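Trying the structure run again after the queue cleared.
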Amino acid sequence: MNYLSETITAIATPIGNGGVSIIRISGEKAFNIINKIFSVKNLTAGRIYHGNIIDSGDKLDDVIVLPFKAPNSYTGEDVIEIQCHGGIYITKKILDLTVREGARYAEKGEYTKRAFLNHKIDLSQAEAVLDLIHAKSEKFAEKSAKNLFGKLSSETDKIKTEITDLLSRIIAAVDFPEDVAEPEYSYIEQTIEGIISKINYILSFSNSSNIFRQGIKIVLAGRPNVGKSSLFNSLLNLERAIVTDIAGTTRDVIQETIDIDGISATIIDTAGIREDENLNKVEAIGIDYSKKYVQDADVVLFLYDLNEGFTKEDEEIYRTIKNKNHIKAATKCDLTDKRDENAVCISLKTGENLEKLKDKIKNKIMVQNLTEIEFITNQRQQKALENTKNSLINALTATRNNEIQDLISIDIKSALMHISEISGEVITDEILNNIFENFCIGK
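Done. Tokens:
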């Protein structure tokens, strides 16, 4: 209660020079604080006010103020938003002024945490806010917005209702055997099977959800001068990496993020891998980095020079990545009539087959048609769903063995507890703090 009784303040926009900065005050002292520092007094919620921020009689800035009265605000509390001119000094000055008049600096994610604690949103919606903030692609933002508007919550609430109804029927029969008949075992079995089927449907999108959230790491690997940096530039459509015919030009790892049909993909250009006792220290370190990134990659683009042929050095490198998810590309196909049926033969000079290679990359990372992904979940939610399913499987096994229904109800209660973790009805302080620690201050 002490936590929620404190009034908090923070800058809700990125720090730096800009057109507008926003300072957000939330808590029971919000209106008292703005009355002390704003030229307009006795503000009414639902109106927009123009005036000056005043410090000891001096005008600090010309601002717009938006007042919100509880519970009709983002946090569910009294909220004041001050829109001042963008700039580090003036924004920080107004922020410090709100602290001087009774607020304290907000912690990371504290506004959204208060929205959750004040029942404005559930925990899955709060996590959707975080996803929306960090979305690096249009499609992930679209899917995250659906969770913010209750897509996942609605479905898990239905599952929770079915579990609750089943548990209620069993408990009623156990507690009042003379008045309530036990549900048929066939009914319990069919109900549990139906619930498990719905959970499996949500979980079927887990892999795609993780790719959406984390993105894909695509590493370009091969000997020096096989065209890695040229391909890197081509995929980015900009001259990002230096390209020369000198072996060892790329000595460090270069990476950029692009959007591939709605999935955030980090393209990583690595130093050419070669064994040479005369390598200088810098290039040797770069090669060690290359090997590490190759091992951590989601997809490896292995390149070799088609004109020179598949050399012993190429074979040694390919041996280390052939069991990984990879694409084999033969470069400089414009210089030879040779072809490799097991590779995409490309020319970075003429652009031959580059679109074909890009399509192959898309096919490698598209585990599902993105338009068909109905539910976006994170690892916490997936674990809760898996635990719910496992408890129901235990209950189902007991049902099929015709065990007494009082024992069956124990696993059903466990399932109810796990499904309630998704909305945050059942949650530990540690998990709650970990979730909101990932938010930025001001949100």
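The longest helix spans residues 151-175. Worth checking whether this holds up in the mutant runs.
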